[in-house]
Design goal:
The complex is a heterodimer of chains A (249) and B (276).
Chain A lengths: L10 E10 L2 E11 L4 E5 L6 H8 L7 E6 L2 E2 L4 H6 L1 E4 L11 H11 L4 H14 L15 H13 L5 E5 L7 H18 L2 E6 L10 E6 L2 E7 H8 L4 H11 L2
Parallel strand pairs in A: 3-8, 3-9, 6-7, 7-8
Antiparallel strand pairs in A: 1-2, 1-4, 4-5, 9-10
Chain B lengths: L10 H21 L1 H22 L17 H31 L1 H6 L5 H27 L8 H28 L3 H17 L7 H7 L1 H9 L1 H13 L5 H21 L6 H5 L4
Helix pairs in contact in B: 1-5, 2-3, 2-5, 3-5, 3-6, 3-7, 3-10, 5-6, 6-10, 6-11, 8-9, 10-11
Classes of the chains: A alpha/beta (249), B mainly alpha (276).
């Protein structure tokens, strides 16, 4: 694998500011993610994580600042950026009345994939999340954890280079959480996938992760876990997070 | 393996995207049995009960495109087809509000295709469903002696498509302005019923003019009247150019408003978005 430092940055967010009315929800947010990075966007509920995701995925425009995906400013070519991006939203977004296969075929069509290309990709991605046998089942019949796995398979269907996941483990049991986390970490290691994983669960960031601490719309710290610990003078990430966020309250 | 390649959007990929959106709408229509059945039963109830009750109250003189006296059922059939399209347009915008509440709108909006194209595809998907429903209705209406000439069954197709686009686009505009389903129910009452009753769907406008000139003007200006007349004339192999121009013009205006409504920069999505 080439050195990831020589490759274009997968996602670069710079000076991003956004308001709802007069309320500032993001204030000069900046960080970057390289291919192969597993970056945890850590913040409590209301920190601005979902707003940040909405801006990165073009659901709405940022008032100020810029987003660059693989060297291309988002505003200049949103289409190219979105084509390289896979997204798992916080809210479930599968069509409950359709089968797993039909949901994935719909997603493949939304990315312009031909049926002959999509069919093996669907088979492979479902097999990788252990749901190959459930392809013909209606989504309504799946458990919460299984639905999340389908959403992950769907986000990876068009072979993105950047994967965004907004609180993907919310409401899942320990086993499903572990499965998702391990699956995504493996994709970073083996395929050089760049990942932004938003969560409020500190234990989802292990020692080799990079962390962006977002609090009340501002980035308080950003970098590999050991750097964050050193910056906060703490022994654990939990202590570091509490130290950083309490200092700003 | 590191991924840096890019997939370009070709004409074929645009076609696949649109095909996928239309297919999903069709599957949802078939799977939601309540919606499927009520869409067929609603106009038939009007035809079987309302028209039977009113056929002796509302006499219809000879007016174009008809060349002879016609039973009341024959008069209201085009209006009922337009009603199918109106309900369908509103239904598909309702499903967009639902999709937005349920989050599935987001999956559509993060597609790499331009937003106007995604909205147009969504609109065409709704129209495709409405056209199928209309033909099923025409098939059943044949048993009520509503038998337009064979050419009418073909000529009505473009009229159905353009009327469906106009009403669907109107639904899109409304869905971009409405945040919650609860609000939508109220708007349905303020849009569907006034549009339907203040039109030529149930009675010829010369009758309205006899009772109120103001109401006649309202009916004339109502684009639903134009949609109804476009379908009525097309069913008899004729083109009502005035109605066609109004329907096409309204479609363009409603579509432009919908694109603005769903634009991430200027539109209502951004303003309405609340905190997480």
């Amino acid at each position: 694998m080439p050195d990831s430092l020589t490759l274009p940055i997968a996602l670069e967010v710079e000076g991003l500011t956004h308001r709802f009315g007069t309320r500032k929800v993001l204030d000069s947010v900046g960080f970057c993610i390289r291919p192969g990075d597993f970056t945890v966007l850590l913040g409590q509920n209301g920190a601005g994580k979902t707003t940040l995701f909405a801006l990165i995925t073009r659901l709405y425009h940022a008032h100020q600042g810029r987003i660059v995906v693989f060297g291309q400013p988002f505003r200049a070519d949103a289409s190219a950026a979105l084509a390289r991006m896979g997204v798992v939203f916080q809210q479930p977004t599968l069509d409950l009345d359709l089968t797993v296969q039909q949901n994935l075929e719909y997603h493949a069509a939304l990315h312009g994939m031909a049926g002959a290309v999509a069919a093996p990709r669907i088979r492979d991605e479902l097999a990788r999340v252990g749901l190959a046998e459930r392809a013909r089942d209606r989504v309504r019949l799946l458990s919460g954890g299984q639905k999340r796995r389908v959403e992950l398979a769907r986000a990876l269907l068009h072979d993105p280079a950047l994967l965004l996941l907004d609180e993907p483990t919310a409401g899942l049991d320990m086993e499903s959480r572990g499965f998702l986390l391990e699956h995504v970490r493996r994709l970073c290691r083996e395929q050089g996938l760049a990942v932004l994983w938003a969560t409020h669960l500190i234990d989802e960031a292990d020692d080799d992760a990079r962390v962006v601490v977002l609090h009340k719309g501002r980035v308080l710290a950003s970098g590999p876990v050991p750097d964050i610990l050193a910056q906060a003078g703490a022994a654990t990430l939990k202590d570091a997070f509490e130290h950083l966020t309490h200092a700003k309250n | 393996m590191l991924k840096t390649e890019i997939r370009s959007l070709t004409f074929a990929s645009y076609a696949r995207c649109m095909g996928g959106i239309v297919r999903r709408e069709g599957l949802r229509w078939v799977h939601q049995r309540g919606r499927f059945i009520s869409a067929l039963v609603r106009p038939l109830v009007w035809l079987a009960i309302f028209a039977a009750g009113f056929r002796f109250v509302l006499g219809v003189s000879i007016i174009p495109p008809y060349e002879t006296y016609i039973p009341y059922e024959v008069y209201i059939a085009p209006g009922l087809i337009a009603m199918i399209e109106l309900f369908n347009g509103m239904q598909s915008s309702l499903s967009m509000v639902y999709d937005r509440e349920m989050g599935s709108m987001k999956t559509l909006m993060v597609s790499p295709f331009p937003r106007w194209f995604l909205l147009l595809s969504k609109l065409l998907a709704g129209v495709a469903v409405a056209v199928v429903q209309s033909y099923i209705f025409l098939g059943i209406a044949w048993f009520w002696d509503i038998e337009p000439p064979i050419i009418g069954y073909f000529a009505v197709l473009p009229a159905l498509i353009v009327s469906g686009l106009m009403l669907g686009a109107l639904g899109l505009v409304m869905s971009s302005f409405i945040r919650q389903l609860e609000n939508f129910a109220g708007v349905m009452n303020f849009v569907i019923f006034p549009m339907f009753f203040a039109s030529s769907a149930l009675y010829p406008l010369w009758r309205v003019k006899e009772s109120s000139l103001t109401l006649w003007w309202v009916c004339q200006l109502n684009p639903f009247t134009s949609a109804t007349e476009l379908i009525r004339f097309a069913l008899y192999g004729r083109v009502d150019w005035g109605s066609a121009a109004i329907v096409v013009g309204c479609t363009a205006v409603f579509m432009a408003l919908a694109v603005v409504g769903y634009d991430p920069g200027r539109g209502l999505m951004a303003r309405k978005a609340g905190p997480e």
